[in-house]
């Protein structure tokens, strides 16, 4: 899952958009999947949802949810399944976390030595992430951490929570993020969590 908007992360500063971006191919809207980048009304958008909205003049109408990758604003439009849409090219590259600099993390592409800065509290030294680009004008669009990562528990609250028949406690990992851990997890121990949901998976 690529991260685009979550309260844990600071918003990226995107370059100003010009009228040119990498067009990939044209196709009917029916064949486009959620997560792809498209051009609509001369601007790039990310398709984040689609819902059947009845028929219009004998053809099925689809309610489409779009997100502007520059401003983060969402918009809704209606399209027919056979409407032709321009698909924009998304590029994925691997980066490795090098070090922290103030509130950001500096990462490097180990093949090209390109460096970028991201704000993400879950990044750990040496971690490899996948960065997604919308080229050439917008640059970094989103990024994806490994699905499961290990973090050190700094503190555990004494306030118990009941979940799935087990007693869970709020705990804070070394990055400062709060998660829920079983009652047998102690400060100083390491745990594996799901980076998409922040759910506890196991103790190391």
UniProtKB/TrEMBL annotation:
SMART domains linked: EFP, Elong-fact-P_C
GO molecular function, one term: translation elongation factor activity
Residue stretches making up the Translation elongation factor P/YeiP central domain: 92-140
Listed Pfam families: EFP, EFP_N, Elong-fact-P_C
One GO process term, biological-process aspect: peptide biosynthetic process
Domain Elongation factor P C-terminal: from-to ranges: 149-203
InterPro entries recorded: Elong-fact-P_C, NA-bd_OB-fold, Rib_uL2_dom2, Transl_elong_fac_P/YeiP, Transl_elong_KOW-like, Transl_elong_P/YeiP_cen, Translation_prot_SH3-like_sf
GO cellular component, one term: cytoplasm
Assigned protein family: Belongs to the elongation factor P family.
Name the UniProt record assigns to this protein: Translation elongation factor P/YeiP central domain-containing protein
């Amino acid at each position: 899952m690529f991260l685009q908007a979550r309260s844990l992360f600071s918003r990226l500063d995107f370059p100003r958009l010009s009228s040119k971006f990498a067009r990939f191919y044209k196709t009917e809207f029916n064949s486009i999947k959620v997560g792809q980048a498209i051009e609509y009304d001369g601007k790039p958008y990310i398709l984040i949802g689609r819902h059947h909205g009845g028929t219009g003049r004998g053809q099925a109408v689809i309610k489409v949810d779009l997100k502007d990758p520059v401003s983060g604003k969402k918009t809704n439009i209606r399209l027919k399944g056979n409407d032709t849409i321009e698909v924009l090219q998304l590029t994925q590259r691997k980066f490795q976390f090098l070090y922290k600099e103030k509130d950001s993390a500096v990462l490097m592409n180990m093949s090209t030595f390109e460096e970028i800065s991201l704000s993400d509290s879950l990044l750990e030294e040496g971690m490899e992430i996948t960065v997604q680009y919308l080229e050439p004008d917008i640059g970094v669009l989103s990024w994806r951490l490994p699905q499961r990562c290990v973090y050190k528990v700094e503190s555990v609250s004494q306030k118990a929570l009941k979940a799935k028949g087990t007693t869970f406690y709020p705990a804070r990992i070394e990055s400062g993020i709060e998660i829920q851990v079983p009652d047998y997890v102690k400060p100083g121990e390491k745990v594996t969590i799901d980076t998409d949901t922040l759910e506890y998976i196991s103790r190391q």
